[in-house]
Amino acid sequence: METIGYDDVVRMIRIAAAKIQANEKLLSTLDSATGDGDHGTTICKVMDAAVAAASVDAGSIAELLHRVGWDVMCVDGGSAPPLLGSFFTGMAEGATGTDSLDLAAAFQGGVKAMREHSQAQIGDKTMMDALLPAVAACSGDSPTAALRAAAEAATRGAEATKDMVAKFGRARNLGDRTKGHQDPGATSVAFMFQGFAEAINERK
Asked: What is the pTM of this model?
């Protein structure tokens, strides 16, 4: 039976980071339309912290995810570090024993932890527009299929934000002027899930 092991989680984090870092300029360009233009820089710092934490042997998947989450939360830069940091620490709830991860449980635990920092819903033009559909779509006969479905849902969710009006963060002050611009936070989450999916698909 196909499972997600410790090394798989490390690979998921590394490839997600590489995917986001390759799109740093795009993410900052998107942010410049509705924010202060630094999302690309901030999210790359977040992923640098995640990769660094994942590079140290933690002994178990749960401890690995806790370390990644706490190190991400220590990054300076608006709402992304606490939101994504809490997502990773919440994912630890899906770890079973020391060597396998239940993806659906992990992602649901991540969302639950994020709810301590944000009540944004689909349609509010935030990273939740990509994250919530990804978590809902994470199902299938194998982790490969589940992550592929999650990545596709996250990508569609991010693209849909282009037609939304921002209701959270600084962007909400711009009102209707945010319409027509894809949300950078949702876009970075889509890249993250694409990286997760690639990491598991490439191990075959």
From this structure: 0.94
